[in-house]
Design goal:
Shape: globular
CATH superfamily of the largest domain: FAD/NAD(P)-binding domain
Helix content: 25-40%
Mean pLDDT: 90
Number of strands: 26
Number of helices: 13
Low-confidence stretches: none
Structural class: alpha+beta
Strand order of the largest sheet: 6-5-12-13-14-11-15-18
Strand content: 25-35%
Number of domains: 3
Amino acid sequence: MHRSDVLIIGAGPTGLVLALWLSKLGVHVRIVDKTSAPGTTSRAVAVQARTLELYRQLDLAEAVVENGHQVKGGNFWVKGEAVARLPLSRIGEGLTPYAFLEIFPQDQHERLLIERLASFGISVERNTELLGFEQTADGISATLRLPDGEQETCQACYIAGCDGARSIVRKTLDTGFPGGTYQQIFYVADVQGSGPAFNGELHVDLDEADFLAVFPLAAEGRARLIGTVRDERAEHAETLRFEDVSSRAIDNMKVQIDQLNWFSTYRVHHRVADHFRGGRAFLLGDAAHVHSPAGGQGMNTGIGDAINLAWKLAAVLSGGAEARLLDTYETERIAFARKLVSTTDRVFTFATAEGRLADLLRTRLAPFVIPKLASFEASREFLFRTVSQITLNYRGMPLSSGVAGHVHGGDRLPWAHDGEGDNFESLKCPTWQVHVYGDTSDEMIAWCNEHHLPLHVFDWRPAFDTAGLGRNGFYLLRPDTYVAIAETCSDPKVIERYFRDHGIRAFFSEA
């Protein structure tokens, strides 16, 4: 009987990243997908800075940046004219190694992940569908329908539902998926074209006409169009062709389409599952939360789910942590998902609302306010911090403790870079580690050596103060580079107590 440590259902970016991280950490995975091939008509295009930071741990960030496209500006159109421009080329400068908006379409993204997964000897089992599963005291028993129509019963310690908004894993868990569906029908089209909106930047139409956004792709003259379908045509979305889509916004932005590569329509939902875990089963990505495309958050949030869960599953499966560590997955990720759905819902509603007041806000107020806000560094930084997900934190949650400098337990470790180096270099290794900025005690050095916990001591410099890091204390970092402990002292007993309290056995032996 086929047995794995983790059975992953669904091979979109979330499932693939989970499989990659687990494989790197030595976990035996099996990943299945009911489709015959990777998707080719995906609408997710943005890879946020926080995702790129985490991708350094799999040596993926460079490949994404090299093969994607950096957007230098966002332009807003009203009545056939570009009325405001938001500079994006270095909008997050000093905050992250990836201080830009990166466009790397999901279909290319999936191909890259599949290629890297193959280097671990793992391939996606296609045309393989989960029919259901049962939980036992020591694992999962799942029934799969294989490509030849035969059924197979397989065993796993855990099952991960990365199988989208219609998740069979979620339905089997019988957990609620409250929320709703927006009335608009959206289309996405991959095109070759020309015109001022094909200058390699992002363009958004704010008119009272149809919503339209033009996302540049790496190839010259190629772009991804995302727009709305209004009026009576929305009632027949499944049979719509690109020729049926209103050309008002396209004409307003002077878009000349030379070739249509593909076209698809979809509805947008806003939902968050009541629970992200049921025993040995977990929900990730669209199986756990779906939201509007505003801000390019969906795919990145699913990838964040995968990374959060991966190191915890690996720790438990290796015997390095008690099973209660897995309780923190839902606690940490569901709070962010709920906040994200609420935020993107407000942005999406503003961008697509109909009526005279909404039109006035978009066409009169927004063109005036956007340039004003863009002129302030603080406004640009706030926008970048929010969209890039570098402000996502787990403050006040069970695995987070303390404050040192401006950094709290649960925060992403701030990036500090100057001519002398980069404090993120050691984060490429997905393991627990300690960072000290300044001086530390002999006891800390001895304890970390004895317990094989990597300790990185950085001579104090102004860049650390600028980043908000505390001097002469320490930061215990989780394998996903979030701060577990932020502490002003240099007493290793604080670390030992933390590991004991949380049932993490990797760094101490039982007396």
